[in-house]
Amino acid sequence: MTDGDVVLKADGLVKHYPIKAGILRRTVGQVKAVDGVSFELRRGETLGIVGESGCGKSTLGRLLMRLEEPTAGTVEFDGVDMYAARGAAMRRLRRDIQIVFQDPYTSLNPRKTVGDIIGEPFEIHPDAIPKGDRRRRVQELLDLVGLNPEHIHRYPHQFSGGQRQRIGIARGVALNPKVLICDEPVSALDVSVQAQVVNLLERLQDELGLAYVFIAHDLSVVRHISDRVGVMYLGTLAEIGDEDQIYSRPTHPYTQALLSAVPVPDPTLRHSRAQIKLTGDVPSPANPPSGCRFHTRCFKAEDTCSVDVPLLVSRPDGVGSHDSACHFAAPFSVVGAEAHSA
Ligand code: ADP
Ligand code: MG
Predict the structure, then answer these.
(1) Ligand 1 pocket mutation, candidates 59, 60, 71, 101, criterion most atoms within 8 A of CB
(2) Using CB atoms within 10 A of its CB, is residue 131 exposed (0-12), middle (13-18) or buried (19+)?
(3) What residue segments make up the domains of the chain, in order of their start?
(4) For residues 303 and 79, what is the distance between their CA atoms, to the nearest angstrom?
(5) C-alpha 302 to ligand 2 mean position (Å)
(6) Helical residues (DSSP H) of 209-324, grouped into ranges
(7) Residues 230-264: pLDDT tens digits?
(8) Ligand 2 centre from 183 Cα, in Å?
(9) Position 341 confidence tier, pLDDT thresholds 50, 70, 90
(10) Considering the entire predicted model, what is its pTM?
């Protein structure tokens, strides 16, 4: 693996939102939405990002597109510092990194036709494609995502949820980006439709050579599509590794707990499957626990965990090793996890 394989690189990303109170709107605290996240995304791969609601996934997604400025840290795209980029370099970045949002019902303007919505990127980047070719290009995009090109004049409400998400995806790939940030793209859809949209994303990845950051709150959703998976907890990465390392040999107690909550379809396996109950609620990101952020809910926690911050470093997983932020990282046999993937 050479550096040339890395398309997007996050280093020490932090985003704190001030909490304002009183009539003077004084800052009384900080929501630590993202609090030190580093990873690399390789060309053409899918990195799944998983974690409970509120752990900072969407904030991370926005930082990766420079929809927000970070409190600290950097993002490099193709070796270019994204937050320092200006002018032509920034416009280039805006083309090469696109996003698909969670909710296909609110992310599409109801007063615009599908043609206008998918063609929007061409208005923002007028030199991407000559004006006279845009309509044909939009029809190609409709066809590419499995929609009828003749429906170019219809409005979002005339489509189903799954079809709307296809429209959002068509808009996302219109400028031939290198990276697509998918922020829970199937979470709002019926389970029966989710797989179709995931299959579409996989096909587009093959055809267009896209790299995905695929955000989800559920480990079972990202397994199929991800080459690697990062598990987030309260603004930080608890564990990150190849798909099989995370699902078959997780070493972080949080990942293990999340995996044990994934339903096993085969009832005969249910009893043999270790169950780890996550106790308590997710603590507030305005006041994360000291030491290891997970220690207040962890079945393995010892005294040191409330004091020492565990680093996200390579730790043995029983077969090889991968990055885990736990003082007591250890492989744990998730019985049934293999069967579940079949
Ligand atoms: P997720 O996508 O994992 O559910 P988010 O990134 O949306 O998490 O939010 C992480 C935390 O940051 C939450 O506590 C949320 O309330 C807070 N947050 C997100 N965006 C803002 C914002 N613009 N201003 C203040 N707080 C925010
Ligand atoms: Mg979110």
Answers:
(1) 59
(2) exposed
(3) 236-342
(4) 41
(5) 31
(6) 219-223, 243-248, 253-260, 267-270
(7) 999 999 999 999 999 999 999 999 999 999 877 66
(8) 7
(9) very low
(10) 0.92
